[in-house]
Amino acid sequence: MLANLHTHTRRCRHAANEPDRAWVEAALAAGLRTLGFSDHCPWPRDAPPVPPPGFRSGVRMDPEETGEYVASLLALREEYAGRIDILIGFEAEHLPTRIAAQDDLFARFPVDYLICGQHYIGDGSGEWLGDWSGSPTADEARLAAYADRCIEAMESGRYLYLAHPDVLNFTGPDEVYARHMGRLCDWLAAHDSPVEVNLLGLADGRHYPSERFLRLAAEHGNWATIGIDAHRPDAIREAVAGVEARALALCARCGLAVHEPPLPAAAHGSGFA
Ligand SMILES: [Zn+2]
Ligand SMILES: [Zn+2]
Fold first, then answer.
1. Which ligand is located closest to the Cα atom of residue 4?
2. What is the pTM of this model?
3. From the CA of 39, which ligand is nearest?
């Protein structure tokens, strides 16, 4: 692994309370050449759905923290120049009611890339409502909405790749799963966009990466890339020490080729506007 574009920081309030430098040092020790930070995007306060008064998210930074996040990474980029390339990104949900405000916020900063992580898919959804995409569901309409929203997100051209495409935890029949997730796989294959194999999910024994999804992706001609989804600096060390090898074995079993993640065409502040 030469590049990892899926890295969080303490600001999302569920990652390790370590300085950003600790992730960079771990990546250097692991032999990475590129480390992309993609902390959970802040949600602008005035875009619907608006959380209840006094609510403080446990899954994303406050919008006011964006400047400090970017400044910290810019300083590290300069300090580590020539040893490792540091990219500044966010993992963002693509929700129609929020996208304009999200665009406005990101346009104010030198953001290199976004990855799409559809942790929430409904127009009125949010973490205070408990409707995380990973909650088990046998509802075909929810599965269809997830696939539609992911395609819409990727079609918008904002996102470098789709993180944990298999986060929607569908417990219904395989043929229903294939009907909707196959559409998503087809879009990604047609646009040469990878399916991420998420090492956090693998290490934690979560429902993703899903073998059902990866086999479907192989049938649809997709290719895979590895995302560490590091919420601790040690997750980067553990990735190269064994979790990545488990992911590669899983992909081999499913018939999926694995490549390095796509890099932003124009990094260092001009890749996204
Ligand atoms: Zn995620
Ligand atoms: Zn993540």
1. 2
2. 0.95
3. 2
Confirm whether 272 is domain-assigned: no
User: How many domains is the chain built from?
Assistant: 1
Residues 6+ apart with CB under 8 A from 231: 8, 12, 14, 15, 16, 200
Q: What is the spatial distance between Cα 115 and Cα 90, in angstroms, rounded to a whole number? A: 6
Q: Which domain holds residue 113?
A: 3-254
Distance 23 CA to ligand 1 centre (A): 17
Decide if 197 contacts 258 (C-beta within 8 A). Answer: yes
Tell me the mean pLDDT in the region 265-269: 67
User: Residue 171's pLDDT is what?
Assistant: 98
Nearest one of 170, 158, 54, 56 to 114, comparing CA atoms? 158
* Smallest-distance ligand from the CA of 235: 2
Whether pLDDT at 270 is above 90: no
